[in-house]
Specification:
This protein has 160 residues and is mainly alpha-helical. It has one domain (2-159). 78% of the residues lie in helices and 4% in strands. It contains seven helices and two strands; from the N terminus they run ααβααααβα. The protein has helices at residues 2-23, 27-49, 65-71, 76-87, 89-98, 104-125, 132-159; strands spanning 58-60, 129-131. It has a two-stranded parallel ribbon with strand order 1-2. α4 (76-87) packs across α7 (132-159). The chain is globular and about 50 Å long.
Length: 160
């Protein structure tokens, strides 16, 4: 399974390199595309294929259910929510690095689509819990990543 993911990443990386070569973008853009592809493959492999299939479809369709559970004493969910935010934070920074014209709305939509794909794959393959909270936290992480990208870009322009 891991070898298949690595092969997919290598193939996608080569496609990205070829695409970058034709358009002649900056080296940072090509590097960001390759890193983004590899990162997404690793995220997908760890969130879906790194788990054993269960016996039933599992889902939680109540938005912010985890916060109610945290208030009820299940503090383990604090870390889970934190890591769900962190998971797509790099995507929020890498997308506008790779594609300079990407705006916050496009990054948000792309992150939501990635998260939805992960959640649906977990549901279909019975390898996790499909939940709206994860999609919210993943998308929030990408938005924060975009903010970090903009902050670094602004600071870089100030020092030039």
């Amino acid at each position: 399974m891991i070898l298949a993911a690595l092969a997919l990443a290598a193939t996608a990386g080569l496609i990205c390199i070829c695409a970058c070569h034709r358009r002649r973008p900056a080296l940072a853009q090509c590097g960001a595309v390759v890193i983004l592809v590899f990162y997404l493959v690793l995220v997908f492999a760890s969130t879906v294929f790194g788990r054993e299939p269960g016996k039933a479809y599992r889902y939680e369709l109540t938005l912010f259910w985890s916060y109610r559970e945290i208030m009820a004493g299940r503090t383990k969910l604090i870390a889970e929510n934190f890591w769900n935010v962190m998971m797509l934070l790099p995507v929020g920074a890498l997308l506008p690095t790779a594609y300079a014209k990407m705006k916050l709305s496009s990054v948000t939509a792309a992150a939501f689509a990635v998260s939805l794909t992960i959640e649906l794959t977990q549901l279909i393959t019975k390898r996790g819990l499909f939940e709206f909270d994860d999609m919210f936290h993943n998308t929030l992480g990408a938005i924060i990543g975009y903010g970090v990208y903009q902050l670094i870009r602004t600071l870089h322009n100030i020092t030039d």
